[in-house]
Specification:
Elements lengths: L5 H23 L26 H15 L5 E5 L5 H10 L14 H9 L28 H9 L6 E7 L6 H6 L2 H5 L6 E8 L9 H4 L2 H10 L3 E6 L3 H9 L5 E6 L25 H12 L7 E2 L3 E2 L2
Helix pairs in contact: 1-2, 1-3, 1-4, 2-3, 2-10
């Protein structure tokens, strides 16, 4: 029997579904954000530019951490793979954090339309996390700095807990890999707690990541060598994630294993950026996108006037 309440687990799942839907809507849609009529070519952005593959894992991590740490002011989430901005933006919108700095991001259909239409759009939001993103300390685009920046923020702040999501491709950068040594240098009671989460989705752009090709034992030994205790979260079941967060071990290092592009129409190596190429002028692609969006049943999660129902 799980010690995590069923109600909480359901809430986490609904939140992930909502954020996955918004992520896909940001990437593809310029109109018809609630699918109130059949999708048309005119509803699709003419130029599709963004990254899907990393986003489901980000939504899973965000929802689980938010549920566990609630609104603890000393907790912080740092995202390494800033190309996953549509997922980050979906979460900031859902929590009302975007609204605090942007009065147009209201919790209703107008706010949803604003967030989705303007993602990766001229004079709108960029495609990657940027200095305009509320709460940002790591700009998207250049991988590798998330861990080092987080250790910097935690320096002299023992009250802080910072969860840092690192891509498995990102961990191949010299910066990210060597930042694991900061555990020996700065992992003291005078500084805050760093919780690294390796997002083991198997791939970097289209090639397999080195860490995903290591055996579980080999990867665990590597992590132990840096002074951390590896904790595998195999799959995106919130029950497993919550139980992992509850584990009382020194210096945990979570390994979140998901499928790259999970929930989308293509797997792994084809899921990195835009997994459906021509929904703006090809009926098969348009149909595929419509089915993908419908699979989240967003109408159960969002009301036009009242906003999120989670
Ligand atoms: C320092 C650096 N090198 C290369 C890139 C180009 N790049 C963008 S995304 C990406 C793949 C990242 O893979 P991973 O960290 O595994 O993220 P995910 O699989 O979740 O997309 C790469 C290499 C970059 N952004 N920064
Ligand atoms: Mg990866």
């Amino acid at each position: 029997m799980s010690s995590v309440g069923i109600e909480n687990l359901e809430k986490i799942k609904r939140r992930v579904r909502a954020c996955d839907y918004i992520t896909v809507a940001e990437l593809f849609l310029r109109d018809n954000f609630l699918l109130e009529r059949p999708l048309d070519f005119d509803d699709i952005k003419p130029r599709l530019l963004g990254h899907w593959g990393t986003c489901h894992g980000i939504n899973v991590a965000y929802a689980n951490l938010k549920s566990f740490y609630k609104d603890n002011p000393n907790f912080m989430f740092v995202l390494g793979p800033g190309h996953g901005f549509p997922a980050l933006q979906a979460n900031l919108f859902l929590d009302g954090d975007l609204l605090k700095v942007d009065p147009l991001a209201t919790n209703d259909i107008d706010g949803l339309a604003y967030v989705c239409h303007n993602f990766s759009w001229p004079d709108g939001f960029p495609s990657h996390a940027s200095p305009n993103t509320p709460g940002i300390i790591v700009e998207g685009g250049e991988l590798g700095y998330a861990l080092a920046n987080s250790y910097g923020v935690a320096l002299g702040h023992p009250e802080k807990t910072i969860a840092v999501l690192i891509g498995d491709g990102e961990l191949e950068t010299a910066t990210a890999l060597d930042s694991l040594n900061l555990k020996s240098l700065l992992g003291s009671k005078n500084n805050g707690t760093i919780l690294p989460i390796l997002h083991l989705n198997g791939y970097k752009i289209s090639a397999p990541s080195i860490y995903a090709r290591k055996s579980e034992r080999e990867l665990n030994e590597l992590i132990r060598g840096f002074g951390f205790t590896p904790i595998l979260i195999d799959g995106d079941e919130p029950e497993k994630f919550q139980e992992a967060l509850m584990k009382d071990v020194p210096s945990p290092f979570y390994i979140l294993k998901t499928e790259k592009g999970q929930g989308g129409p293509t797997a792994h190596q084809d899921a990195h950026q835009i997994p459906i190429k021509y929904p703006m002028n090809n009926y098969d692609d348009l149909d595929l996108l419509e089915k993908w969006l419908e699979s989240y049943h967003f109408d159960e999660l969002f009301d036009k006037e009242k906003g999120f129902m989670l």
